[in-house]
Amino acid sequence: MSLPIIDIELPVFVIFSVSAIISSLLIVNSRNVFYSAVSLGILGISVAVIIALLNPEAYALYSAIHLLLYVGATVVFIAISLVLFRGVQVNESNIPWASPLATVLGIVLLSVILVPFLSASSPLPPQALNLTVLAQDLLVKYWFPTIIIVIALATTLVEAITLARRD
């Protein structure tokens, strides 16, 4: 028995909203900049899920690019530049419940990803990728998310140049 999507939206929204609030508080209150960057990654994931919940058909692309841009690029760039160039010390702490919790969450995440693929009746036939149609969709259908992404990329570029020029 599977739950309808409508029944799942509210709990997912509440979970990721609380996650966004908690991670934003951790960003502000953390004394270590590296841990603030990790919390920024969690905030980026939470915001991407909330954006996708607004209208999955319209904002799925924007949500995916938000994940790639902020979590995949910006947070990793900040973390690596802090550790390598600033010599930020990352203190390891042994929390006894962290490993079992991470294992359970990893198994749950893996099952959430794999169950739709394993339960599919027949695979979809591959379709040819037409770059002209993709560009037309990005500029006509998804013009607002495209503008947001261009501004975000420009901001990230300015941030990278500023960090690189700082002595």
TrEMBL record:
Swiss-Prot/TrEMBL keywords: Membrane, Transmembrane, Transmembrane helix
Pfam families noted in UniProt: Oxidored_q3
Alphabetical list of InterPro entries matching this protein: NADH_UbQ/plastoQ_OxRdtase_su6 (IPR001457), Nuo/plastoQ_OxRdtase_6_NuoJ (IPR042106)
Top-level lineage group: Archaea
GO MF term list: NADH dehydrogenase (ubiquinone) activity
Transmembrane segments: 12-28, 33-54, 60-85, 97-122, 142-164
Protein name per Swiss-Prot or TrEMBL: NADH dehydrogenase subunit J
Source organism (scientific name): Sulfodiicoccus acidiphilus
